UniProtKB/TrEMBL annotation:
<dbReference type="GO" id="GO:0004423">
    <property type="term" value="F:iduronate-2-sulfatase activity"/>
</dbReference>
<keyword id="KW-0106">Calcium</keyword>
<keyword id="KW-0479">Metal-binding</keyword>
<protein>
    <submittedName>
        <fullName>Arylsulfatase A-like enzyme</fullName>
    </submittedName>
</protein>
<comment type="similarity">
    <text>Belongs to the sulfatase family.</text>
</comment>
<dbReference type="GO" id="GO:0005737">
    <property type="term" value="C:cytoplasm"/>
</dbReference>
<dbReference type="InterPro" id="IPR000917">
    <property type="entry name" value="Sulfatase_N"/>
</dbReference>
<feature type="region of interest" description="Disordered">
    <location>
        <begin position="149"/>
        <end position="179"/>
    </location>
</feature>
<dbReference type="InterPro" id="IPR035874">
    <property type="entry name" value="IDS"/>
</dbReference>
<dbReference type="Pfam" id="PF00884">
    <property type="entry name" value="Sulfatase"/>
</dbReference>
<feature type="domain" description="Sulfatase N-terminal">
    <location>
        <begin position="19"/>
        <end position="360"/>
    </location>
</feature>
<dbReference type="InterPro" id="IPR017850">
    <property type="entry name" value="Alkaline_phosphatase_core_sf"/>
</dbReference>
<keyword id="KW-0378">Hydrolase</keyword>
<dbReference type="GO" id="GO:0046872">
    <property type="term" value="F:metal ion binding"/>
</dbReference>
<keyword id="KW-0732">Signal</keyword>
C-alpha cells in the first residue's frame, strides 16, 4: 500500500458509541506551563486539564519547525517519509492521497471542523496554508491577523524591535479582538450548532505564543517585570557545542539583544501563553456547559518547543531539549491514569494511532507511531525506548541534524557526525551543558546511540519543488 495505507476491513463502532475528539494546539509553545513546573507561568486552564488527564513530561516533536512537525503529526509519518523539512514543502505533493488524521475521522463518519492553525500556516500573514482540503466539513477561512488592536503604553520601558530584541505589544480591548479569541469563540459556536447525531472531531489551533508577541494588556499584567529572570548557563556553555547548533547558525534567529530586552521578550512570551491558555479555557468550559466533557477525548499539544535564551539561543529549529520537547496532555474519559504524570517517552507520531484506538476506529496500517492507550491506563508504563527528532539549520538550511532521546541520554549528529556530535547525560546534566561526545568513558553509549540514529533516521531525500 506504500504510504497511503488503508484501514483494511475493520468495522468502526456505531456512531452513538463513538467518543468526540477535541484537538487543541499552540504554536511555538515550550513547556512553559504551570503544570510543567515553570516558576511564574500562569496557565490555570491547561493546569486543570492536566489534573483530569495524563500529563506527558517527555513528549517530543519529530521536527522543530512548523510545517515539518505538523505534517508529521497529522499524517502519522516521520519526516523521512513525508520529506517535509521546511515550510515550503508540500505533504500532498510528496505523498499524493495521504490520509491525514482529521480526514480519516471524517471518512469514518465524524463531523470535522477547524478553527485556526492545525496544518502549517504563515503567522501573522495567514498565507502559506498547507491545510488538508479533504479533512474538514468546515474550516474557518485564513486571514492576516493584522492590524492588531490599539496599543497600551507599557510600564516596561524597554525598546523592542527585530534588531534590538523580539517585538512585543500590549493591546487593548477584549480577547476576541485577536485571532485566538476569535477561534475559541467561533469554535464554541460550532459546538452549539453542530449536527448532534454525529460524533465530532474539532481542531482548534491557537497562534500564540508564535511571534509577534502580541496579547491583551491584562495578560502582561500577570507578570511584573522584576519577576522575569534569564536562564542561567555556564560561561563556557558554547565551547563544546558544534557550529551548526550554536547561536548565529540560523541568521534570522541570531540573538543579539540586551539582557533587559530579553527579559521583556520573555515577559511578553509568557503573557501570550496566558492569553492562549485563557482561550483554551473558553473551549473547555463550553464542553462542560454543553454536557460533552464526559464523552470527549481532549488532546492538547505544542507543535514543537522554543528557546528563551538557553544555550544563547532564541526561536526553534534546534535539537536541544527546549526545542524538541513539547507540552502534551491527553484527557480521555474512562481511562485510569486521570490526574497523573507520565515520564514515558512519547512522539507526536503517537497522536494519530492513539486517537484511532480510543475512538474505536481502524488505524491506517502505515502509521509510524504507537497508541498511548496503555499509558493512559497506567502512566507508569513505557512504550518507547527512544524518541527521535530531526532539524535543519544554517544560512541555507544546509546542516542536517538528527537526535535520539532515551530516558537517560540525548545523542545528536550534524550531517551524520561530519559537522559535529553531541552527547548529554540527563541524569547528571538535565540542561545539556556538558557535551560528552569526546569522553572515552562514554564511547560505548555513543556508539550504540549513533547506530540507532543511522538505523532509524537515514538521510532524507529532499523532494523536488
Amino acid at each position: 500500500m506504500g504510504v497511503l495505507g488503508h484501514a483494511g476491513g475493520l468495522h468502526a463502532a456505531p456512531a452513538a458509541a463513538k467518543p468526540n475528539v477535541l484537538l487543541m494546539m499552540s504554536d511555538d509553545l515550550a513547556a512553559t506551563l504551570g503544570c510543567y513546573g515553570h516558576p511564574v507561568a500562569k496557565t490555570p486552564n491547561l493546569d486543570a486539564l492536566a489534573k483530569r488527564g495524563v500529563q506527558f513530561d517527555q513528549a517530543y516533536c519529530q521536527f522543530p519547525h512548523c510545517n515539518p512537525s505538523r505534517a508529521s503529526m497529522m499524517s502519522g509519518l516521520r519526516p523521512n517519509t513525508t520529506r517535509v523539512t521546511d515550510n515550503g514543502d508540500n505533504l500532498y505533493k510528496n505523498i499524493p492521497g495521504v490520509l491525514t488524521l482529521p480526514h480519516h475521522f471524517r471518512q469514518q463518519g465524524y463531523a470535522t471542523a477547524r478553527y485556526g492553525k492545525i496544518f502549517h500556516l504563515g503567522v501573522p500573514t495567514g498565507e502559506e496554508s498547507m491545510d488538508d482540503p479533504q479533512a474538514w466539513d468546515f474550516g474557518l477561512p485564513f486571514r492576516d491577523e493584522r492590524p492588531y488592536p490599539p496599543t497600551r503604553v507599557s510600564d516596561v520601558k524597554v525598546k523592542a524591535g527585530k534588531k534590538q530584541g523580539l517585538p512585543w505589544q500590549e493591546t487593548t480591548g477584549p480577547d476576541s479582538n485577536m485571532v485566538d479569541g476569535e477561534f475559541a469563540e467561533k469554535a464554541v459556536g460550532w459546538l452549539e450548532k453542530r449536527d448532534s447525531t454525529k460524533p465530532f472531531f474539532l481542531a482548534v489551533g491557537f497562534h500564540r505564543p508564535h511571534l509577534p508577541l502580541v496579547a491583551p494588556a491584562k495578560y502582561f499584567d500577570l507578570y511584573p517585570f522584576d519577576s522575569i529572570t534569564l536562564p542561567e548557563s555556564p560561561a563556557d556553555d558554547e565551547a563544546d557545542i558544534p557550529e551548526p547548533a550554536r547561536n548565529g547558525a540560523v541568521p534570522g534567529y541570531t540573538l543579539t539583544s540586551t539582557p533587559e530586552q530579553r527579559r521583556a521578550a520573555i515577559r511578553a512570551y509568557l503573557a501570550c501563553v496566558s492569553y492562549m491558555d485563557a482561550q483554551a479555557g473558553v473551549v473547555l468550559e463550553a464542553l462542560k456547559r454543553l454536557g460533552l466533557e464526559e464523552n470527549t477525548i481532549v488532546v492538547f499539544s505544542g507543535d514543537h518547543g522554543w528557546h528563551l535564551g538557553e544555550h544563547g539561543l532564541w526561536h526553534k529549529r534546534s535539537l536541544f531539549e527546549e526545542s524538541a520537547r513539547v507540552p502534551f496532555i491527553i484527557a480521555a474519559p474512562g481511562t485510569k491514569g486521570v490526574g497523573k504524570r507520565s515520564t514515558s517517552l512519547v512522539e507526536l507520531l503517537d497522536v494519530y494511532p492513539t486517537l484511532c484506538d480510543l475512538a474505536g476506529l481502524p488505524a491506517p496500517d502505515v502509521l509510524q507511531g504507537k497508541s498511548l492507550r496503555s499509558v493512559l491506563e497506567d502512566p507508569g508504563v513505557s512504550i518507547h525506548d527512544a524518541a527521535f527528532t530531526q532539524a535543519r539549520r544554517g544560512k541555507n538550511a544546509e546542516y542536517w541534524g538528527r537526535t535520539v532521546r532515551t530516558k537517560r541520554w540525548r545523542c545528536t549528529e550534524w550531517d551524520e557526525g561530519r559537522n559535529g556530535i553531541e552527547l548529554y547525560d540527563h541524569d547528571a546534566d538535565p540542561h545539556e551543558y556538558k557535551n560528552l561526545a569526546e569522553d572515552p568513558q562514554h564511547a560505548a553509549v555513543l556508539k550504540e546511540l549513533r547506530g540507532l540514529l543511522a538505523e532509524k533516521l537515514p538521510p532524507i531525500e529532499v523532494a523536488k519543488k
